[in-house]
Specification:
rod-shaped, mainly alpha, 3 helices, 79% helix, single chain
């Protein structure tokens, strides 16, 4: 039985025992609000600046992803350049251009 099934069962039990459905729903809503507030307190997002903090975290994550993509592109570029340099060096050796260095 998951949480939503348990909640439905408890609401059905409360209404069958004579409790008004509106009252039960109000209790559920208040409990949900209280649980959400507790969770925000636990993660440190219960103050006025929480919205700004989340915005800054999103910007930081966006910048991190951009930097990571840029670094990956730079690594690929350097690998390709290195391979081309090795190819040119191999061609120079193959064609006997090493004698020009003597």
């Amino acid at each position: 039985m998951n949480n939503s099934d348990m909640l439905v069962s408890l609401v059905a039990q409360a209404t069958s025992e004579g409790t008004d459905l509106v009252t039960v729903r109000a209790i559920i809503e208040e409990a949900s609000e209280l649980g959400a507030q507790r969770m925000l307190e636990q993660v440190g997002l219960d103050d006025i600046n929480a919205h700004e903090d989340l915005s800054q975290l999103r910007e930081l994550l966006k910048a991190w992803r951009a930097a990571k993509a840029s670094a990956q592109a730079a690594v690929v570029t350097w690998i390709v350049r290195g391979l081309f340099a090795l190819l040119l060096l191999g061609l120079a050796v193959r064609l006997g251009a090493t004698e020009l260095l003597k």
